[in-house]
Amino acid sequence: MHGTFSDMYTYGTMQAFQQFTGINTVMYYSPTIVQMAGFTSNRLALLLSLVVAAMNASGTIVGIYLIDRCGRRRLALTSLAGVVLSLVILATAFILQSSSSLCGSLFSGSCQGVLGWFAVGGLALYIAFFSPGMGPVPWAVNSEIYPEAYRGMCGGMSATVNWISNLIVAQTFLSIVGWVGTGPTFLIIAGIAVLAFIFVALYVPETKGLSFEEVDLLWKERAWGSQGSHESLLGAAP
User: Fold this and answer.
1) What are the start-end ranges of the H helices in 131-227?
2) Between 31 and which of 20, 49, 85, 145 could a Cys-Cys bridge form, CB atoms 3.0 to 4.6 Å apart?
3) Following DSSP, what letter does each residue of 10-58 receive, concatenated?
4) Residue 34 CA from chain centroid, whole number
């Protein structure tokens, strides 16, 4: 039972990080973000948001292919590294756009237009990194790490954490933008993504190639501090 609580804590936290690293901020508010970047045409904003949605769907399909080839942990870490990079690009574009002196010193001509496309590029890069990794990985591992007796209850609780986090993100994004600005808001999300990277690196084991019984044993060993068999299980995963 102790190991089950450890499972639930780890993957419940991972589900929360999935939301707080900004995916549904991007999905819900992509037309608004595109307009914030300087594209005032409603038609263009909606078109670009459709491109974002299509990229997300395509990236998830790629993730289905990669998850058993790269492994859950490695895929999540690579995804989060790219998410941090893309959010920094996005934040930089908005910060420069809000400062006319910085904008003018770095770009000649219409710097607002250049930075607008720079922001859209950051948005596309974010989706390209998030969708194959942190999109499917938390849900995949959530379905395979709990003991059979607790799988339904723990999986449901982890999903609840995900949706509560989703609600918080959806309800607070525009308010935070109003308080601190668009660029700093994306920097905050980038900071959360850094924390998520550290969390996955420290606490999330690789379960690729392990049976349910081996995963259960792995978590029991982690919970009680036994490392010998844990190392052999991780080494046995192809």
Assistant:
1) 137-142, 151-180, 182-203, 212-224
2) 49
3) HHHHHHHHHHHTTHHHHHHHHHHHHHHTT---HHHHHHHHHHHHHHHHH
4) 20
CA distance 47 to 90: 19
Q: Are 63 and 135 in contact (CB under 8 A)?
A: yes
**CB atoms inside a 10 Å sphere around CB 177:** 20
Full DSSP string of 60-81: HHHHHHHHHHH-HHHHHHHHHH
Q: Is 205 left (phi over 0), alpha (psi -120 to 50) or beta?
A: beta
Alpha-carbon distance of 14 to 20, in angstroms, equals 10
- Say yes or no to pLDDT of 237 above 50: no
Distance from C-alpha of 73 to C-alpha of 208, rounded to nearest angstrom: 9
Residue in the block written with tokens 């459709």: 50
From first CA to last CA, the distance across the chain in angstroms is: 28
User: Is 64 a residue whose pLDDT tops 70?
Assistant: yes
Sign of CA dihedral 81, 86, 89, 92: negative
- What is Dmax (Cα atoms) for the chain? 64
Query: What is the predicted pLDDT for the residue at 227?
Result: 46
* pLDDT tens digits, one per residue of 195-223: 999 999 998 888 777 766 676 676 666 65
Q: How far apart are CA 175 and CA 58, in angstroms?
A: 31
Query: Is pLDDT at 175 greater than 90 in this prediction?
Result: yes
- In the structure encoding, which two tokens stand for residue 132, read together? 């194959």
Work out the pLDDT band at 231, boundaries 50, 70, 90.
very low
Residue 98 has what pLDDT? 78
Residue 74 makes CB contacts below 8 A (sequence gap 6+) with: 206
